[in-house]
Design brief:
The complex is a heterodimer of chains A (169) and B (118). In chain A, 72% of the residues lie in helices and 0% in strands. Chain A is built from six helices and no strands. Chain B has 118 residues and is mostly helical. The chains are: A mainly alpha (169), B mainly alpha (118).
Amino acid sequence: MTAEQIVFLIVALVTLGSAFMVVTTRNLIHAALWLVATLFGVAVVYALLNAGFLAVVQVVVYIGAIAILFIFAVMLTRKDARDSGPQTHKNWWVGALLAVASYLGLSALVLGWSGSSKAAAGLPSGFDAVGQLGEALTSPNAYVLPFEVASVLLLAALVGAVYVAFNRK
Amino acid sequence: MLLEYIAIAVMIAVATLIAFIAIGLGELLGPKKKSEAKSMPYESGMNPYGEGTRRMPVRFYLVAVLFILFDIEVVFFLPWAIVFRQLGIFGLIEMIIFIVILLVGYVYAWKKGALEWE
């Protein structure tokens, strides 16, 4: 095994373990903190995939902002931070069956692809991922429309939050 | 490729180590005389009142949402700024449209008084 494979296995185990804790712990604040660990594991996976910018964005936006928003949301709601109800739905086995079926289906798809056994080619030297992203975001042939639509989406989120928070006066 | 990230790994390791040392040394060397005053939650020297898990005002949520939005805006700025010189005037106009749309929401939040804290 190469060093990268060892790092990947450790990170994958930690990520899956903390994701498991997110759904099993009874204290919602603890669940949010385990979610931070999970998101950090995903950031490391991005870094392993040579996506350094996405790894930083994952830490800054998901851990720095969205996980904190989750914790705020828990603190804003009723005193339900400690849940005493059952943690599984009575049809949990249906969900488990579907999850296994989709896993098997996706595995069959990936293994059926001829490129799945080949090692990925290394990036050319001097490859500027962030610059390419910037060009793609602003080029009319690429993603300029989704980029501008994203600002409308952010606007809707902002107006919605202000409306919900301030319309009781 | 992993070597590029070795500094971050070292930083995480050192930070974890310092946390363990700080807590572990206090646990090892500190005297353990318990008293009622010591076991109270620390609230800047005031006597704590109410529960620790009471509901927070919704304004905190609004601040968090505002932070996320402008956080994401900055994330879009960075790749754009790196290739700004190649893009020229066209890229500038695109980014101005992006900012103006978000400014509409900012002005709305401002007019609604969402940025004030009484």
